[in-house]
Every structure is written in C-alpha cells, then in structure tokens.
Amino acid sequence: MNLKIFLAACLFVVLFVISLMIGVSDFEFSKIFSDDDHLLILMASRIPRNFAIVLTGSSLAIVGVIMQMIAANKFVEPTTAGTMDSAALGILCATLLWPHSGLMFKMLIATLFSLFGSWIFLGIIRRLPVTNPLLVPLVGIMLGGVIGSIATFIAYEADLLQYLSIWINGDFSGILRGRYELLWITFGLSIIAYFIANQLTIVGMGENIATNLGLNYRAIISLGLIIVAMVTAIIVTTVGMIPFIGLVIPNIVNRVVGDNLTKALPIIAYIGAVFTLVCDIIGRLIIFPYEITVSVIIGAIGSAVFIYLILKRPRHV
Amino acid sequence: MIKVQNVSKEFSEKLILDDINFSLDKGGITSIIGPNGAGKSTLLSLMARLMPLDQGQISFDDLDIKQTPSGVLAKKISILTQSNHISARLTVLQLVMFGRFPHHKGRPQQADHAHVARMLELMELDEIADRFIDQLSGGQQQRAYIAMILSQDSDYILLDEPLNNLDMKHARNIMKSLRKIADEMNKSIILVIHDINFAAAYSDLFIALKDGKIIVQGSVDDVMTEANIELIYDMQVDIKTIDGKKHAFYYT
Amino acid sequence: MFKQDKYIISALVVAALVCMIIFLTYQTQGKWSYVLTLRGTKIIGLVLIAIAIASSTIVFHTISHNRIITPSIMGFDALYIFIQTVLIFFLSVQEIQSISPTLRYFINLALMIAVFISLFYFLFLRSNRSIFLLALTGIVMGIFFRSMTNFMIRLLDPDSFSTIQGLLFSSFGSISNELLSISALLIFICLVIIYKVRFQLDILALGREKAIILGVNYKKLVFMLLTIIAILVSVSTALVGPITFFGLLVSNLAYLIIKNQNHVNLLVTACLIAIITLLVGQFTFEKLLELQGTLSVVIECLGGITFIWILLRTHKR
Fold first, then answer.
1. CB contact, 8 Å: A126 with chain C?
2. Strands B188-192, B156-160: parallel, antiparallel or unpaired by DSSP?
3. Predicted local confidence at residue C164, as pLDDT
C-alpha cells in the first residue's frame, strides 16, 4: 500500500513538472534563478495554472461523488443535473445587473443560482421512480439544457454571448496569479467533504436507512448541496464549465474500491487531479503552439466513457 | 416497553391508520399480520420515525419518538424497510459496519468489529463479506441488510417483511436467528410478515390489522382460530394442530 | 373520429396559408417582385425544414415504438455536422471547396445514411434496451459528436476556427439558399415513398411481431424508412443546423390532436403544426419583437420543458 502511494505521488510530481514546462513563452527551469523573466513566468503563470488544474480536477471529482450520494444515482454530476448551467446563468445575471461587482460577489450569486438549480433538480427527481436510474441524468441534462438556453437567450439580447462562451468553455489558459486564488476555497470545501464522508455514504443509502441510523438526513443533504454549489460556482467563475469529471472519475474509482467514501474520497480527488492534468497537457501539446481548451478534450473523453458506462451497466443495478 | 397511543395517519385525505393503541412489554417476537393495504408498513415506519407522526404518541422505554434526538433513538430502535435500493457500491462488511454508526460515529472500535463479525456469521455472510452488494443475489442482499440492522444492536428491532427474496432454508434460518436474538439478548422484535404459519411458528404475539384498525390482538394460540383468520383475511382456512403448534391450511 | 381529423387538418391548412400570407405581405416596402422573392424563398425554406423535421420524427417514433426519443435527441443532427467535419478534416478546406457543393452534399448524405443506419442497428436492434437507456445514450452521443467536432475543428486550423464554424452552422434567419432546390427535391421524394407505405406504417406501429405476422417485410421496410429519416435529418440540419427539440414539440402536439394511429393524418398534422409554429415564431421574433436569431433558443427551452414534463407525467413514482 505504501509503495502504491509512493508511486502515485511520483506520477503526480512528474506530471506536475511536465505541465510546468509546457507553454508558448520561452521558459527553462535552469534559468529561474538567473533570469527574472523566467522566474516571473513560473510564479505568475505556470504555477497558478498548475494549481488551478489540480484544484479543479480534484474538487470536481469530489463534487460529482457527493451529488451521486445525494441523488442516490451513479449518473449525476454538476453537468448532468443542471448545476453548472445554473451557475453560469447566475454569473450572467450578476454581470448584467451589477456589472461593476467583484469576482467574489459574482461567485456568491452563482452559488445561490446553482443551489436553486440543484433544488429544482432534486424536486423533479423525487417524483421519478427509483427503479429506473437512467431517468435521473436524462431529466438532469434536459434541465441543464433548459437553463442553458435561458442563459443563451439573455446573453444574446444583452450582447454578452462572448462572456457566456468563456464561462461555458472551461479553459486554463487564462489563469494568472491574482485571478485564480478563489479556487483555493474548493480545497477547503473538499476537506469538509472528507470530514463528513461517512455521513455522505450513509445518505447515499437512502433517507430511510440514514434516519434509521440516527442521521439528520436533511442537514447532511443541505451541507452537501452547499459544497456542490460553491465548488461549481467557483470553478465556473474562474475556469469555466468542465463536463463529466465528476461522473467519470467516481464511476471508475468505485469499480475498484467501492463507494465507502472515507476510503474512496482521497483516491477520487487524486485521480481527478491527474486526469485533468493529463488532459490539459494533451491540449497544450497536440497543436503546439496553439492550445485546445481542456473542456473540449474532457468533453470528448468524458462523453465516450459515459456512453460506455451506460451501455455496460450491470444488469440488475 | 413500547407504547403506541391514539396513532392515526392520513395520506391525501385517505385514512391509512385509524386510532391505533397498543403496548408491548420488552422482549419476544410480535408479528403484525393482515391483508395488503391494512397499514402494517405505515405503522412500522411511524414507529421508527421514518414518517412524520401527525396524530398520537409513540414511545420506547418512555422515550417519546418525537422528542428524543434521532441519534439517541438509533441506539434504541432499528428498522428494516421493505424495499432497499442502494446505488452506492459497498462491500457487505462495509454495509454491516455502517449499522454500527450510531455507536462508533465513524471511528469503529474493537467492539464494533467483533459485533459485526458475529452478525455476519449469524446471517451466514462471513464468506462473502468482501463482495460488493451489487454483485449479490437478492437473497444475499436481504441477509446483508438484516445483518446491518441487527448490528445496530438496538433494543427494539422492526423488520418489514424480512423474508422477502429468501429461499426456504434461509428464511427458516433467519427466523431461528431472530428467535435466538430475542431470547438470549432480550431484544424486542416486531415483524411484518405475510406467511402466517411462519409467523405462528416463531412469534409470541400477533397484532392483526385490517383497514387501518387493530382487529385482533393476542397470543399466537388465541389469534390462530378459524374465526379470527376469516375475520382478518375474509377467507376460510383450516387450522390444524400438529406437534402442539397451530397451522393454517389454505392452499387448496 | 376520422371525420373529425379531416376538419382539424382543413383548419390547420387554412391557418398555415394565413400565416404564409401575413408573412409575405406584412409591412412590405419597395418593389413587390423583390420582396416576394426574398420572403418567398424564406417561407419555402422554413416550410421545408418544418416538413423534414416533423415527418422524420413521426416515422422514427413509429419504428422505435416510443414518443419521446426523436432523431435529434438521439444526437443524429450532431452526427451530421460531425461527419461534415470529418470530411473537411481528411480532405482539407481547399479540397472541400474545390468539390462542387452538390457533390459535397451527396457525399455527406451517403456517409450520414451509412453511419446513421449502423448506429441505429447497433443501439436498437441488439437486445431489449429500455427507451431511457437509448435516450440517454443518444444525448450523450450528441455531446460526444459535438465535442469531437469542436476538437477536430480546432485541430484543423485554430486561426480560421470561426470561418469553418460558419460553414457548418446556420440559423433560421439565414437559411442557405443554394441548397433549397435540391432539398426540396429530396424531401419530395421521401414524402412520396412515405405516402406509398402509409398503410404499412400503421401496421408497423403495432409492433415488430404483429407487423411480421401481418405480412410486412419488416427488415426491408425498416431499412428503407431509416434511410428516409437519415435523408430528412441531413436535409434539415444542412439547412438550419441542429435544433434538438423541435421534432419532439410538434410530434407530441400532433399526438395530442390526432388520437388515432392513422399515419397520413398524423404526418400531415405534424407537418402543418411545424409549419405554423416556425412561421409564427420566426415572424414574431423577426418582425414583432425585432430579436435576431433566438427562435431556436426558445424552441430548445420549451422543448426541454416539454420533455421533462412528458417524462414526469408518464413515469410517476
């Protein structure tokens, strides 16, 4: 086990360093002490970008599994529940109504919107039969589409389509020092998620079992939803939407280690971070010196894995 | 001691339970019987606070379920509901260990592990303890859920149709285990069960519900009469005593 | 009952004609001949799109025995655009432009028919998969095709990204004129064939087994109908780009009005409703509200809500 952790850590460090080295501007590690420009590139652009990637990947994966527990459904994550679109709509409204407000304020509005979106989503899926788990993501994607089209409509009329497309298409290329620090909040939220991992797992077994075990079901759900909404809002404001990380990573991890979150959560966070790092590295290398945005790559890989997961679903689940 | 006083429950203007009153002493097995739609599951869910109690009072050892914190009640009562859809991938061991959650709050101690091991053995699950529950058959899953509820080690154990999905052998073994738990550990077990002969063979008391009311109540021998069964189920059966136990024959 | 259908259809015909006349004559300025050709072409375009989407949806519903999934929900219009992109990808923009538009159109069409039919057989005819499984697979496949399209466009030439995107997408406001006559011809042929098999369609609606027992050459008929659907989807997508929910909206309106399974009546009603909806919608948005290009967004929004509503209504807990 210790060897595994060691190897995993090595892989992470290697990827992190590789990712630091890739970029258009002239940069070499050997010169960071002799040349201020090189140090500046590292500190102001490369390192922030790397942290942003790691924080985004891990927290989105965690948020995905939290939502899966809350909805008691394996196919739920921020993009298949309308949460991402709600957050984008929130930022759009904040930008429209209070154009001079700061990033923090916009993020708060986005959090409120995604909370509201999740609330609608949960309200709808409560009315669906539990025996048909596929209905849930189906409804969620549709709900996301509806909210997204409202956002598009408003953006079109207010001439903000340009902005909307920035929030919709997640991309790390714009990450600079001073413009990503909000993402560290997701780190704190992930830690909180870890502390309530047991409770979240129990909630995933359904309201009856949770109540039977003496849990305050509603309180845990509310706390979980607040974490989900805040993480989603922060990521959409700073990076933009990135689909399917929250779906793909937990579903791969639970095939091996299961859903006992005290055990699975660190692994989910780790694989989420590594996966996002790899995708971003690919995006930067494939048409160098240009860049393919990470959301496009993850969208393609993620949807392919999603299809696989749907079609290869065990019969009786 | 369980006290149920003046409990009624309505769903969308339809009266499911109508002024239920009974009290049960600690220990033994009580079976709630009655036709479909009599309100048996609703009564169990109300007792285990899974549904809000609008009218009446329910208490376990003088702990009123409305006033007592849920975490305290979790050590007092446990319930197995009829349908359990768990989408999370957990091993049998993990699932049963979650039954100990009211005691260990996330940090299982030596005693918790020991208790879980006993319950796995009792439910004949020790060989498949590390398998994921979604890989198990319906019967194995059912036994895993029962093990989870039993490992909660509460004084009162409510089981809604625990024999669902079980074959003859495992159904009998589970009833035997329940009897053992009731006798040796002084637990009160309340079952909702459809097979009246099974219920008669292992229970001490019967409570018969019909149309939301308690229609007959008493010891198994008192309730198992042809007149009573006809009253409860609107069907005629033959009651025969074999080896001192009453059996209902209704197959032909 | 059928007589009542005749009245409904007559009323719809009148309504459609009135819509066309208003659309043609509202606030005309300048030369009549000029205005009439301009708006006339636009009406023809809208009518063609309406017919293509409505009839392909109804036929698809009959083949797949459901009233929720439509070709566009299955991601088949995204597939059309994806195929176009693949073509550009392997032939380069210059070569593509050197092929005559008509020939390019037919190459696209042939590929589309081939891929569409193989996908259909892969998804529908292998074992008994639930409608929701298919719908979810289709939607995610649509996302996959869109992501891949984006991905490949970016691989092609990051600088001319928007030019290529312009080649691929269009909207109700700017229907490509050069494709009108060929589209009209294709749609006409499809309609004639559908009309010839109209009674077999009624039998097909009873289910596969019943159709075979009643002497329908099931395999041949389904194959032919799938080809027709592929053509109709291609035609409408080429004209206007993907509109996910329009088919769902108009087909379900038609099912509400026509209570029996007479396919001629169903098809005619759905087409007429589609025509009226598009004309009224386009007129309202363009002339009355003076909003540009947002009709498809509104259709997406309404369609998504309809979809969720149908699911909730038919699958109560």
1. yes
2. parallel
3. 60
Structure tokens at B112: 């918790």
- A192-245 pLDDT per residue, tens: 999 999 999 999 998 999 999 999 999 999 999 999 999 999 999 999 999 999
Owning domain of residue A203: 2-311
> Does B46 fall in a domain?
yes
- Across the range B198-206, mean pLDDT stands at 93
C-beta separation of C278 from A109 below 8 A:
no
Residue B233 lies in a domain: no
Q: How does pLDDT run across A249-301, given as a tens digit for each residue?
A: 999 998 888 889 999 999 999 999 999 999 999 999 988 778 888 998 999 99
Query: Phi/psi at A198 (nearest 5 deg)?
Result: -60, -45
Contact list in A for residue C297 (CB cut-off 8 A) is: 149, 152-153, 156
| Distance, CA of A218 to CA of A209 (rounded, Å) | 13
Residues 21-50 on A with a CB inside 8 Å of C are none
CB of A118 closer than 8 Å to CB of A83:
yes
User: How many helices and strands (H and E) does chain B possess?
Assistant: 10, 12
DSSP per-residue string spanning A70-119 = HHT-TT--GGGTTHHHHHHHHHHHHHHH-TT--HHHHHHHHHHHHHHHHH
B244 occurs within a structural domain: no
What confidence tens digit (pLDDT) does each residue in A19-76 have? 988 887 777 777 778 888 888 888 888 999 999 999 999 999 999 999 999 998 989 9
Q: Which amino acid is at C153?
A: I
Minimal CA separation from A124 to chain C, in Å: 8
Q: pLDDT tens digits, residue range B45-102? A: 999 999 999 999 999 999 999 999 998 999 999 999 988 777 778 999 999 999 999 9
Q: How many domains does chain B have?
A: 1
ipTM, two decimals, is 0.85
Buried b (16+ CB within 10 A) or exposed e, C73-82: bbbbbbbbbb
Q: What is the CATH number of the domain that holds B136?
A: 3.40.50.300
Residues of chain A in contact with residue B92, where contact means CB-CB under 8 angstroms, are none
The region of weakest confidence among A123-127, B15-19, C183-187, C258-262 is C258-262
Burial of B31 per CB tally in 10 Å (0-12, 13-18, 19+): buried
The reply to whether C311 falls in a domain is: no
The neighbours of chain A, by the rule of 3 or more Cβ pairs under 8 Å, are B, C
As a whole number, the mean pLDDT across chain A is 90
Our count of domains for chain A comes to 1
Structural domains counted in chain C: 1
Residue C302 lies in a domain: no
pLDDT digits (tens, 9 = 90+) for B204-247: 999 999 999 999 999 999 999 999 999 999 998 999 988 888 89
Which range marks the domain in which residue C270 is found? 3-170+178-292
Task: Please say if the pLDDT value at position A317 is more than 50.
Answer: no
Which structural domain range is residue B160 located in?
A: 2-224
- How far, in Å, CA of C188 to CA of C194, rounded? 10
* Angle, CA B147 vertex, CA B143 and CA B151 arms, to 5°: 175
Asked if residue C316 belongs to a domain, the reply is no
Query: Could you tell me whether strands B28-33 and B77-80 are parallel, antiparallel, or unpaired per DSSP bridges?
Result: unpaired
Proportion of chain B above pLDDT 90, given as a percent: 73
Kindly tell me the number of DSSP H helices and DSSP E strands found in chain C.
Answer: 13, 0
Integer Cα distance of C215 and C201 in angstroms: 13
Residue C128 exposure: Cα atoms within 13 Å on the Cβ side:
1
Report the chain A residue with the minimal C-alpha distance to residue C138.
A307
The CATH number given to whatever domain includes residue C76 is 1.10.3470.10
Average pLDDT, chain B: 91
Its pTM stands at 0.86
Asked whether residue C306 is domain-assigned, the answer is: no
Asked whether the beta carbons of residue A303 and residue C144 sit closer than 8 angstroms, the reply is yes
